[in-house]
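Researcher: Let's do a round of design. I'm pasting the structure tokens now; please hold your answer until I've finished.
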């Protein structure tokens, strides 16, 4: 029950904004890869759009899973959307249960990748 209680204290809108900040580091790593980055770019685009909508719409914590499922069901070809929604739900639950991960997000997701990107 402790983990479930923690989930209700993490607001999805705030989490969406925090995870958007964390995507900057992911994009820095993606750009340095020596392979075709098209799938990465598409996935990050879907995730960025979902997180932006999450931050704007701010469903209640107990409604987050249904909110994400509605996004999947609204897509005609939902494979990428389903994958990103599942990833966001997993990361939300992790942030709600793991104070270290949650604190890292709250601090702006500091990363050596993001720092190298800015330099």
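Researcher: That's everything. Go ahead.
Model: Designed sequence:
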């Amino acid at each position: 029950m402790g983990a479930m209680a923690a989930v209700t204290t993490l607001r999805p809108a705030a989490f969406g904004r925090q995870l958007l900040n964390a995507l900057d580091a992911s994009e820095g790593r993606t750009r340095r890869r020596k392979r075709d980055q098209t799938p990465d770019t598409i996935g990050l685009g879907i995730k960025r759009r979902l997180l932006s909508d999450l931050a704007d719409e701010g469903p209640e914590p107990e409604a987050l899973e249904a909110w994400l499922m509605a996004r999947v069901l609204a897509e005609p070809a939902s494979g990428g959307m389903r994958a990103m929604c599942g990833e966001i739900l997993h990361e939300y639950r992790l942030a709600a249960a793991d104070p270290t991960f949650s604190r890292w997000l709250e601090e702006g997701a500091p990363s050596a990748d993001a720092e190298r990107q800015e330099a």
